[in-house]
Amino acid sequence: MKQFFTLLFLVIGLQGRSQITVTTTDMPISGDTIRLSTASPLSTVDLTQTGANFTWDFTALVPDSQVVDTFLAVSSTGAIYSIYFSAFLGNPANSAHRGPDLSLIPGLPLTNAYVFYNKNSSLYEQVGFGATYNALQIPVGFTNKDVIYNFPLNYNDADSSDSNFSISLTGTGSLSGTQHRVNHVDGWGSIQTAYGTFNVLRVVSEITAHDSLYLDTLSMGFGFDQPLTREYKWIGKNKSLPLLQINTQLVLGTETITSIRYRDSSRVVTPTGIEILVSAPIPSQIFPNPSSGNTMLRVFSESNKSLTISILDLSGRELRSKEYVTSKGINEFALSSTNLSSGVYYIKVKQAEKNVETLRWTIEK
């Protein structure tokens, strides 16, 4: 009997640290709202440690600030983008989010940038971007797409892609760029942060890029190489964005951290650097959504309490209902699509006789 329990605990331990495979269902979809904490680039981390069945401990990271990354439906970004980034014109995109501030590029007054993505069963790629110029939306599609991941993604996988774009603005100038990306899955195991402990793959992306800028006002242009950039990404199942991403650049021959962002709960950062968990409820999430089968419901609970999850049809008729007991923090529950046909349903989440939330779940079988 003693040997049986020893073997049982060993099996459970191995299952808890199993190697995962990342697929398209683990990538962002329109409607995802993802909270990220930003830590100081001066934080002490060792990026050389990796390998098989490895544990990365980043619990010492302290947030300087937080951002919320929201993925949008392409149709919500504007009519011009909706037409341009469509399969009809050969630039299909199925999600977008706010892009970087382009107003800092000298001589190119671009604002309200968006980045557009496409994902399918075999890849996740950036297909282009767009920005507003003189109150007009200017879409820019990549001639060759930036393939961020190829699926399925497993330990020791490696691939590369080349991408390029060009934009010309009459009377102002032009901007073009080329990029070469090399991806390598160099580790698997578990990661520990303030957000929790998760099974992950670590993907390192090495990016070399060259940009060219021509200004009509100066009748001249110039080209420049971007510093060698590396993206270290720890990717979990059903997490949309990496649980942790650390970007670096090669500066004077030294790899220098430029940004650290990781998935986190809602926090307030005081001027003294003390972080306090916000007591206000965090909206629940369904992912993936739409889904072709079962999906997950993520619920934040302020304490241990009862919770009821109900599935309703569009008329409000209750199809299923089940009661659970939550723990303080993030809770995840599986939603089964068994005996449910393709269509739209309502998920009603009721905690402790109050705080009722209603979410839309789309099933596409």
Describe the structure.
- The chain is mostly beta strands and 365 residues long.
- It has two domains: 17-269, YmcC-like fold (Beta Barrel); 281-363, Immunoglobulin-like (Sandwich).
- Helix content is 6%, strand content 55%.
- It has two helices and 23 strands.
- The protein has helices at 2-16, 79-84; strands spanning 33-39, 54-57, 63-70, 95-98, 111-119, 123-133, 136-150, 158-169, 173-193, 196-215, 220-225, 229-236, 244-251, 254-263, 267-269, 275-277, 285-287, 295-301, 306-312, 318-325, 329-335, 343-351, 354-363.
- The strands form five sheets. Strands 1, 2, 3, 8, 9, 10, 11, 12, 13 and 14 form a ten-stranded mixed sheet that branches.
- A hairpin with a 5-residue loop joins strand 15 (267-269) and strand 16 (275-277).
- The longest helix is centred in the first third of the chain and has 15 residues, at 2-16.
- The chain is globular.
- The termini are far apart.
